[in-house]
Design a protein that fits this description.
366 residues; mainly beta; 4-stranded antiparallel beta sheet; 44% strand; globular
Amino acid sequence: MRMSVFGFAVAAALFFSAGAHAQAPPVEAFGGVPALGDAAISADGTRVVAAASRDGRPTIAVYDVDQGQPIYAASPDQNNELRSVGWADANIISCRSTRTFRPGEVLPENFRLQGGPGRIIFARDSVIDLATGRMRALVTGGETAWADQGSYLVAPIEGDPGFGRMVGRAPIIEAQRRVVYRVNLTNGEARQALVRAGEDTIHYLFDARGDTIARTDSDEQTNRWRIFVYDAGGQDRLLLEGENATGSPIHIVGALADGRLAAMDEDADDQYYVMYAIDRTTGAREVVFSRPGYELSEAIIDPWSRQVVGAEWTETEDLQHFFDPALQVAYQGLGQHFPNGGAKIMSWSRERAGPLVLAEKGPDGG
């Protein structure tokens, strides 16, 4: 299997080149390597989008793997903190940023936040059309976008080119629930989709075609949570329910290749987070992956199918395990290239070939 281990230490120079098509100078010209925040390979495996920061300056760049040349570079607002990048469509990249405000900078007059916080953090997804170079922030709230603090983009969508799904606050300002929108990635227009939801829905799961497969409801007043699955025709069905001191439900992270739901939750001894598989018909669950003595930090999601394909955890360094055989073989082979460890698979193409690898050495940022 070919690996895209072309090295961000070299490619980092393109992040700060004069233009999108300029020849990247050697990395030594910059006195070091900028900190790599995230990177993702395109569906066909020919391009890489990367997010980096140096001296507090966020930068996004797209690199042509076969030609060895940068094809796009941009620096977003330096007041934003760039969190992640990805591919929303064949020629549209996505990025997620956060920014801290004082409440008075964003809230309408006479509005106050509960608890009176001195700072609030807004997270926003944006898309960049590589054909035009235009960046557009995506919101679901229209004139009340200030209230849409928890929205997030789900893309790409198989069979719906040029569109994504967004989860955001319901149009009625008093409503707390999250609803689903179909968003145009070119002009940013978001229209609410016809998806059954509850009054206290906080999270949705989607398949590759953008259809809703599950949702999570959580009642802050009673601390009771419920997990629903969606059957044929979009009909929702209660699968699991429970309650705890905070109302926080088990964390449904996606679907496994066999169709069962994957969830992160504490083990039987309430000590470490493990991954469970949950039967979509009966709700029965069993542990599918754990690391005795260690806590799983997150599930690894395939960006194209949205299936859960592995898990990550930390021992002396960050480690991964993949359920997909090809990705697991590729991961196990990283030791040949990086005998000192510190390497991980960040991304892969739609065919799960040519994985993109990040290797870190001390404080060099990757």
